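Problem: given the chain below (151 residues), write out its structure.
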Amino acid sequence: MSEEIWKPNVVVAAIVERDGRFLLIEEETSTGLRLNQPAGHWDPGETLLDAVARETLEESAYHFTPTALVGIYSLPLADTGITYLRFAFTGEITGHEPGRALDTGIVRALWQTPDEIRAGRDRHRSPLLLECVEDYLAGCRYPLALIRHHP
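Solution.
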């Protein structure tokens, strides 16, 4: 008898705050326009830090350098059987390419205050959007040295 090995989908997200506002993206989903942090799947051959920098650029046109880990989050979706394992990073915006084409499905990047994010819960792609912002606001920061990539 062969049992299928369970594997979570590993994703990264950027929790970026500037002048009291957080970087979000608005994207088309099967349930309509939703808000999320710049986030996406970890690709083969990348480090998690490379992945979050790439995803942030592709989805928002902002260059991002991670400086700390905010948290690691597990989100099982009962309707699909998929579990997402999210590594959320905070860091610095180091540049912007306003004319850059965004990933397919991404409508725009925007900046919202924590109160605007809380008020828009019904438009969040995932409950992790607000949870990561609240953890960031609570001061959750873990050194990047916690993450070790071996060649």
